[in-house]
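Hi all, long-time lurker, first post. I run a small reading group and we've been trying to get comfortable going from sequence to structure in the token notation. Rather than ask abstract questions, I figured I'd post a concrete chain and ask someone more experienced to write out its structure so we can walk through it together at our next meeting. Sequence below, copied exactly:
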Amino acid sequence: MIITIDGPAAAGKGTLAASLAKRYRLTYFDTGMVYRAVGLQMLLENCPLEDKISAENFAKQLTFQRMMELSKNPNFRSLEGSHAASAVAAIPPVRAALLKMQQDFSKKPVFADGTPADGAIYDGRDTGTVICPDADIKFFITATPEVRAMRRFKEYEQKGQASSFEEVLEQTIARDKNDFARESSQPAKDAVIIDTSDFSIEQVFEKVCEIIDQRQKTLEK
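-- Answer (accepted) --
Happy to help. Here is the structure in token form:
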């Protein structure tokens, strides 16, 4: 079973996807990690970030297991790692290779240790429209810009990162404008759209589980 969790930033996709993966014993694929993995590999191999050939080769060789190994590196989510991820993400052949990697994974999903999985939860943008257009169940998780900005603002506060709510809201609105300018970032036509603005993560989780359980019964018939 392949399930996609799409939606704008700070809508709650990651928390929901991770919880669903545990509930249904499926592997969890955070699609944003693929570019970080290639970027970090470039840094570890001391390759200039503008070296497009090396970046493409790393992208073609990337496996889910290797990505999970790299995710344990302290630089995976560091500022340096983020910069490297952005640099390789701008290279078309890298994007093509990683798209293929993500699509192929849905045909033979495995857990981080390489053991076969009965399916996967894909978390990220365009998962239901581009990466897994034939997914068994698709969700598009959203919330108002104000609610999402407040969630992100509180995250920054907990991490001790200086910012103001107004700045975060402005960034959220700007990112939405850029994201939704792409047709692929719109909800898939067959996606279940859930607005989390007025619900807790627990309430959203239970609602999504009800939908999945019902869909499973339909698929089994």
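A couple of things your group might point at:
The radius of gyration is 18 Å.
The chain has a mean pLDDT of 92.
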